Amino acid sequence: MSPPHQLHAHLIVCVGDSITEGFSDPNNWPYHLKTRLGGDWEVVDQGVGGAKTADMVARIDTALALDPHFVIIMGGTNDIVNGQVPLATTQANIVAMCSRVESYGAVPVLCTVIPSSYHLAERDSLNAWIVEYANLKGYPVINFYPVIDNPLNPGHSNPALVMADGVHPNPEGYTAMGNEIDLAIFTGGTLT
To answer: Is 0.85 surpassed by the pTM of this model?
Structure first.
């Protein structure tokens, strides 16, 4: 069955918050993904600082209007840190985005939330659910969590990879995140 829309095979849209937008560095993880894919791949960064998952739901059609083949969704940090949004609400928002992306004919790709020093139990519950939900639905997952985790203080961000706020990746953190992404998610194992 063909998708309901003509999708751009080499177009990826990244939906998220300031961690996707590039708070400390325009060379954020979407930039590094584009650099690694090369060729005629296009990676559009639609991260917006301060966005909660409800904001992302409201903007998902903006991402789909570009007719991407893939929509990478990285949300939940602001729900947990700034919003005290119930976990069930965050989950429902992620499900709503994935359903919309899938109904459009595109492929949802979910990302885990990176470590910080805030609300660790809620973040860990959300990440466990993201992986479980993605596996259930057959969606690819980009597990950014271990990339930014501090090996000397597990569950917290690695100070070598984040800004002084302990939340936003620095240039080294973004490079590490970009290098963690399995390009086969998008290329099927071959760069074309």
So the answer is: yes
